[in-house]
Amino acid sequence: TVVTVNGSASHITPRLLYGQMFEAQLFSGDGGIYAEMLQNRAFQQVTSNTTTALYAWNTINGAGLNVIADPLPVSSALPNSLQLTIPEGASGPIGFGNEGYYGIQINSGWTYNASFYYKFPVTSSFKGAATIALQSAEGQVYASASVSLIGSQTTWSKVFVNLRPMSSPMSTANNFTVTLNAAEAAGETIDFAMFSLFPPTFKGRANGLRIDIATVRDNLGGSVTLYEMKPSFFRLPGGNNLVRISQGQTWATRWQWNATVGPLVDRPGRMGDWGYINTDGLGFLEYMYLCEDMEMEPIMAIWAGYSLDGESLPDDVLDPYIQQAIDQINFVIGDSTVNKYAALRASLGHPEPFPLTYVEIGNEDFFASESYIYRWRYFAGNLTAAFPQLRFIATTYPFNPILDPVPLQYDNHVYQTAGWFIENAFYYDSFERNGTYYFQGEYAAVSLNASGDGLMYPTIESSIAEAAYMTGLERNSDIVFAASYAPLLMNVANYQWTPNLVAFDASKVYPSTSYYVQQLFSANRGTEYLPSTLPTYNGTLYWSVTRDSSASTVLIKIVNADSTSSPMTFNLPFEVASAGFATVLTGPPTASNSPTTPDAIVPITSPITFAKSFNFTAAAYSVTVLTAQIV
Ligand SMILES: [NH3+][C@H]1C[C@H](O)[C@@H](O)[C@@H]1CO
């Protein structure tokens, strides 16, 4: 195959071309990138006096343990407390433990910050020590500290404890425990609330992110990071988790930005849309800090009156929801000297506005496109008037139905077979250039063929198909302004969707083959697209040529979906230095990175010789990035 490259760029690479889609699903937030280690830390949204209310907690040595509806709750947002009753006649340590999110990593290099509130429901003469510890399920103590609990403390008192493990067990089958001396504390009843256990966080941010997900360490000691994927945008908070959940919930249980900001003790949490309770500890401001710390711009969605069980808000009750969206946007970009919600942002520590260009109105409203006709008109109409500098993204099919005001951006989602992505590498080539821009907000090859089962993890075959499609996104990035694989993160211990880009468990992270494709494309995007000979439609060989005009480099992405290698000749329109690099991701088509084969497939970079006209053989089943210095 001979590829002739044009020296004049057809268009510049859009600022936000590659990024990440995020929503609280698959324990990607709680139990994932949100670094809180204790599951069910505040007994949010559970029914008191039930055993299920105690999920993730366990009793030690026969202590009585119950979640109560506290007559004196730690806050109106957290009505439940954990009541510990110490029986008479026991001996030794007695109390309770938390198993974390399917394990707790104990690392001797870390200082853990623990905290909780306690009170005695009835005043008592007790004055004794509680031991706070990190210990294995078998009871081996790795870190412990002592705090004194005082029986006269009948109002909530917050306790802080630092824990420094003496060693790092391989196993994550560990517990955070609170125990007292059974003889000393016999007959006592003590209430607890709002526990927390944090390891060090990404960039040291309080209430922040798990370092090894924001920064993913591969087994080779290198570091591939969500951050290193050089994502330019972060779509939040969903996805379906933005949309009110189905199964007969009320409008009030939808995600609401204002219920997720401010002190953790004031956040009620909610039943998320993926079958588990969201603490909302990774709240709206934490999402903004995540964007700031990973140098991304939010593509922020607002709730637009649709629920997954098909109901839509009628058109005469939209005003309070439109106002809530206006307030949400002002929290992000408002002037803190004039706007109350911007002033709230300042009071929480961020007086400056966050960057924001795009606001998505709803999510996948093609499921409710009839009502979207008026919902879009009211939301986009009012928000455009309030924020003329913002660009609003519609979530129905392009121009179906016709919307007013006419959307200038649409969000396309596609979950399809690997074959579909190969066949649709020219998907956007035929789109009219009529001033409309497209966000490929969610896409993934989810199975290998129409009848095939869904993939648990991406494979080389599925990732290569995505790469072929992405060469089309680059060729059409004059109208495709942003693209993100979805979903981003999955806890291998509890998930509701596969495949995903990056899997993890309580101590390790598993970047998939598709993650490496995203990283190769995003970290080598160039600043302008150089047209070249078009690949064969529905063929097996695809490429995309860009130039980085600041670094003065040429970047050539090559995708070979065939089982045999493919010799190529590139004719460049300019001279290049002979010493260049090839980074190749390749392997057997069925190969995956997974907890059992964590780094089966990683990109390998090696030097190659370039010339104005040069030959390169694309390996079978491979994604390659060639980079050369233009001279
Ligand atoms: N059904 C998918 C589409 C929706 O937007 C996401 O929440 C789901 C996967 O992440």
Describe the 3D structure.
With 631 residues, this protein is an alpha/beta fold. The chain has nine helices and 35 strands. The longest helix is centred in the middle third of the chain and has 18 residues, at 369-386. It starts with a strand and ends with a strand. It binds the ligand [NH3+][C@H]1C[C@H](O)[C@@H](O)[C@@H]1CO. The ligand [NH3+][C@H]1C[C@H](O)[C@@H](O)[C@@H]1CO binds next to loops.
Briefly characterize the structure:
It contains 9 helices and 35 strands. The chain is α/β, with parallel strands linked by helices and 631 residues long.
Distance between the termini: 25 Å
Q: What ranges have pLDDT less than 50 throughout 5 or more consecutive residues?
A: none
Strand arrangement in the largest pleated sheet: 3-16-19-20-21-22-23-24
Count of DSSP strands: 35
Bound ligands: the ligand [NH3+][C@H]1C[C@H](O)[C@@H](O)[C@@H]1CO
Mass-distribution shape? globular
Radius of gyration: 27 Å
| H/I helix tally | 9
Percent helix = 10-25%
Largest sheet: 8 strands, parallel
Mean pLDDT: 96
Structural class: alpha/beta
Report the β-strand fraction as a percent range: 25-35%
Descriptors:
31% strand, alpha/beta, 631 residues, binds the ligand [NH3+][C@H]1C[C@H](O)[C@@H](O)[C@@H]1CO, 7-stranded antiparallel beta sheet, 8-stranded parallel beta sheet
Write the layout of secondary structure elements.
Layout: E1 2-4, E2 11-12, E3 20-21, H1 29-33, E4 57-60, E5 64-69, E6 80-85, E7 93-98, E8 112-119, E9 127-136, E10 141-150, E11 157-163, E12 174-181, E13 189-198, H2 211-214, E14 215-217, E15 223-225, E16 233-236, E17 270-271, E18 277-278, H3 284-293, E19 297-302, H4 319-333, H5 340-347, E20 358-361, H6 369-386, E21 391-394, E22 409-417, H7 418-423, E23 437-447, H8 460-475, E24 480-483, E25 489-491, E26 502-504, E27 509-511, H9 513-522, E28 528-529, E29 541-548, E30 553-560, E31 566-571, E32 579-586, E33 604-609, E34 613-618, E35 622-629
Parallel strand pairs: 1-31, 3-16, 16-19, 19-20, 20-21, 21-22, 22-23, 23-24, 25-26
Antiparallel strand pairs: 2-28, 4-7, 5-6, 6-13, 7-12, 8-11, 8-13, 9-10, 9-12, 14-15, 17-18, 26-27, 28-29, 29-30, 30-35, 31-34, 32-33, 32-35
Bound molecules: ligand LXE.
Ligand LXE binds at residues 23, 25, 238-240, 363-364, 413, 442, 486-487, 497.
